[in-house]
Amino acid sequence: MTAIDPTAHLTAEQIEELGRELDAIRDEVIAGRGEKDAAYIRKVISAQRKLELFSRGVLLFSIFPPAWLVGTAGLSVAKIMENMEIGHNVLHGQWDWMRDPKIHSTTWDWDHVSPAEQWKHSHNELHHTYTNVIGKDNDLGYGIMRVDEDQKWHPFHLGQPLWNFINACFFEYGIAAYDLELGKNLNKRRRKNPEFRARARAVGRKIRKQVLKDYVIHPLLSGPSFLTTLAATFTANLVRNIWSHSVIMCGHFPEGVQVFERRSIKGETRGQWYLRQMMGSANISGSKAMHFMTGNLSHQIEHHLFPDLPSNRYAEVAVKVRALFEKYELEYVTGPLPKQVFSAWHKVFRLSLPNRKPRVKTPDREQELVAA
Amino acid sequence: MTSAALRSRAWKLLEMVTTPLLPSDYLDLVSPLRAGGDLRGRIEAVHPETGDAATLVIRPGRGWRGHTAGQYVRIGVDVDGVRLWRAYSVTSPSNRQDGRITITVKAIPDGKVSNHLVRRAQPGTLIQLDQATGDFVVPEARPAKVLYLTAGSGITPVMGMLRDIELDDVVMVHSAPQPQDVIFRNDLHDLVADKKLRLTELHTDTDGMLDISRLDELVPDWAERETWACGPAGLLDAAEDHWTEHGVPERLHTERFRPGVVVTGDGGEVTFGTTGKTVDADGATPLLDVGEEAGVLMPSGCRMGICFGCVTPLTAGAVRDLRTGEITEAGPGVLIQTCVSAAAGPCDIER
Questions:
Q1: Which helix (H) or strand (E) element contains residue B128?
Q2: What residues of B are in the A interface, CB distance below 8 Å?
Q3: How many CB atoms sit inside 10 A of residue B191's CB?
Q4: Of A103, A125, A127, A272, which to mutate for an interface test with B (greatest number of B Cβ within 10 Å)?
Q5: Would you state the pLDDT for residue A190?
Q6: A102 in reach of chain B (CB within 8 A)
């Protein structure tokens, strides 16, 4: 965290003007949505399904090492596409405008142990509304890590590099536990709550189906390739989990990203909300293929400003958003994946140790605006 | 174990293999028109009829159950990436040998779907299909004398009937602006030449609109005829009054293509269909707030239009997006974000 508020030079009027300029970018994309975008998502979905079918088919013969390699690689890529460019974005309602009931946030289910409904609540609603607000946005460290100097240190945090590594390997289970708010809900009184129990049962059902598919039925169908198929699916899930964990860590954890105090969002205007999204997110730079494999979450800043715009449009939006960052003299946090991943991990290690209370407090828009 | 039980077990196993998708999601990749899948059709050809009308030859999926002459079919077409549903009369005979059906579409001004189908639809395109429906049909006990009273694209269900059912005494009074606007003009004149139809063709650009009282002169025995009428609302309203005045309303069967035009305004009466509550709403209050004020349990989320946690079916009327001003009209599959939508006239919401 920086000791100085990086948005202090902006007046209230400038912030509202910024909001209007961002609204204009959004309106332009919405007015231009059409056939090409629809064709894009349909093509991606169809390609993903074909790749998954092909890879699972090859894995039936995974007793032969080349088949294992090809099948495992294919399945890993298919699973990444499914979670990132398709699942995450469809569940955001990015494709609801097509009115196709098969590609709709209310009907979609994904290859993930967290049921779509629960994820939509904790992610779309809590995380995207309260981005980087300490105490409101649990994505800040997922409730198991300390990722900002302002957060209170506890000896438990000494182990956080390890927790983070385990979380990366079993990320989808971590997300499911997080969506259930397991830490908070496991105490004696709360775990008996019927609403929590119903949600926990839904997660249980989803885990059972996912495990049956990946670790029982597909291996059984492979007959003599039982063990190698099992290993291949495990590997593909591991690759997908580590990949998505890395991409997602790059969204809000790298150095330069701001966090906010709970009281700073009281009575927040649209312009201030936009500004918080801008300062609370970070991008990953890279090739088209890189953007695609991250589900365009490499354009995390743009995604946080406009979470419901189709993902294939973030690249063109990013050019305009970046120009606004420059115009308003704000820092656009971005960098190649290795650099951003290193930066995020570095923070995880650094904050596992206690620090002195920072001199200047977290940006508090309310106070500043009163002062201005 | 019975074979049905065995099949259902096998299906369950297959569902586990494809989880969280369904086997049909994969089958759709290879065979979208198969039996057992969602009903779809493929446009195989588009034949122009007039300057602004065209006939589409559609190969329906295996689940198609056929139609009765005069019925209509609802089709879902993707226009600019958005799936829109419209109803069109089937114009092919019900016993067509190759199993194809045809619909005939007239492009109406500003009609998104009709213009798309007439001017841009490509053979090979998949469309969504519903089973044929509608009671604008000739009964099994064929009437001895029939009158078809049509105007404009109102000819389409009647053409379906003419091609399907041969009757001894058929009279038709059809109106269109000019001769070149008469859809199926050649087909109609062929029927006349074969003495299967007596036709009065009116051209409203030169003759003016049909005055219903002229029927006495055009078809003196109209009151004895079983009549099927289809055309603009004005014609049908006049016909209904006329038949009622003469005490024979049961002889008249009408088909209205566009039942009610959605009136858009600022605010209106909001009906929550499931709970049966009705309240007045202004044009600036989000429907989420309107519902909650009225004590309806509304799904909600971020309350700023980003999380899609509040989407709810809009079953009638129209709403305005408070951010963009865009109007959304009700229709099948139309969902709205209640937190950023306000009433744009009377509307019904499924809650």
A1: strand B126-129
A2: 13, 16-21, 25-26, 29, 78, 80-84, 301-302, 304-309, 311, 323-324, 333-335
A3: 20
A4: A125
A5: 87
A6: yes
Is residue A79 within 8 Å of A240, Cβ to Cβ? yes
DSSP string, B92-124: S-TT-TT--EEEEEEPPTT-HHHHIIIII--TT
Strand arrangement, sheet containing B53-60: B82-89, B72-79, B126-129, B40-50, B53-60, B101-106
Task: Write out pLDDT tens, residues A241-299.
Answer: 999 999 999 999 999 999 998 888 999 999 999 999 999 999 999 999 999 999 999 99
Instruction: Report the distance separating Cα B199 and Cα B213, nearest Å.
Output: 18
In this prediction, residues B192-204 reach a mean pLDDT of 97
Tokens 């006049």 identify what position? Answer: B238
Q: For residue range B143-158, what is the model confidence (pLDDT) as tens digits?
A: 999 999 999 999 999 9
Contact B321, B343 (CB under 8 A): no
> Regarding predicted confidence, which is higher, A221 or B110?
A221
pLDDT of residue A237: 98
- The CA distances from residue B228 to A38, A186, A343, B51, B243, in Å, are 41, 69, 76, 26, 12
Determine the Cα–Cα distance for residues A295 and B153; give it in Å rounded to an integer. Answer: 47
Residues 6+ apart with CB under 8 A from A98: A38, A41, A104, B78, B81, B82, B83
ipTM of the complex: 0.89
Cα–Cα distance for residue pair B257/B152, rounded to 1 Å: 12
Q: What region, left, alpha or beta, does residue A60 occupy, with left being phi > 0 and alpha being psi -120 to 50 degrees?
A: alpha
Q: Which amino acid is at B192?
A: V
Minimal C-alpha gap between A156 and chain B (Å) = 32
